[in-house]
Amino acid sequence: xxxxxxxxxxxxxxxxxxxxxxxxxxxxxxxxxxxxxxxxxxxxxxxxxxxxxxxxxxxxxxxxxxxxxxxxxxxxxxxxxxxxxxxxxxxxxxxxxxxxxxxxxxxxxxxxxxxxxxxxxxxxxxxxxxxxxxxxxxxxxxxxxxxxxxxxxxxxxxxxxxxxxxxxxxxxxxxxxxxxxxxxxxxxxxxxxxxxxxxxxxxxxxxxxxxxxxxxxxxxxxxxxxxxxxxxxxxxxxxxxxxxxxxxxxxxxxxxxxxxxxxxxxxxxxxxxxxxxxxxxxxxx
Length: 285
What we know:
CATH topology of the largest domain: Rossmann fold
Mean pLDDT: 87
Oligomer: single chain
Radius of gyration: 21 Å
Strand order of the largest sheet: 2-1-3-4-5
Largest sheet: 5 strands, parallel
Order of helices and strands: HHHHHHHHEHEHEHEEHH
CATH architecture of the largest domain: 3-Layer(aba) Sandwich
Shape: elongated
Strand content: 5-15%
Distance between the termini: 52 Å
Low-confidence stretches: none
């Protein structure tokens, strides 16, 4: 199933729930069916005014869908429709804010950072850090836009523990990993929308060969979730021309810190050796 079909099914499941409930919900669905792309970037007040219902009706609709309120539903709707948006459409949304309450990107990032408190205090975060700390060998993999996070993850984790590598399409390791011993490698997938087909297919092939897989992705319905043994859900901001990865960068930073805390003897010795080498090479001005 491609991303666009998956997004369409999610939206249709929402509309079906609304069609069989209150009159206000039926009005909301009728508006959303034709205007959901715009609605995803509107405030609750603006959406209520456009439809002709109360703001509380919008909130109740979001709760009926299973969300805590309008803000959570709005974030999920943005995540769903960004699978459909072309770069040209993203540019239009970036240039046409829905209101004057502030920059949507900054507002979204503020919301994402607030959500990190629960993410980094979770058992799943701790389990992910332990995998990174004690795996014999780690290979970070990604493709296209998400691959911009690879150098950061590779560089900083490699400072606190050995045997950290990265691979993307076209790298020799991308093609050669399949012939190596799966028991020796933890493959860490970084995958955010729009999910590249080549990455999902590669992960599926590595899973079939018995590699232990972990993923950093943005939602439980991400196509990489069924293909990995452990996942960490991290929000990204999609209300700009290109997605913003502020929250994933912070999570990667905190994972590295936690790994260093789990293997203090290894990380401290490694950092001391790297610092001594930098001093010898007169690396910094």
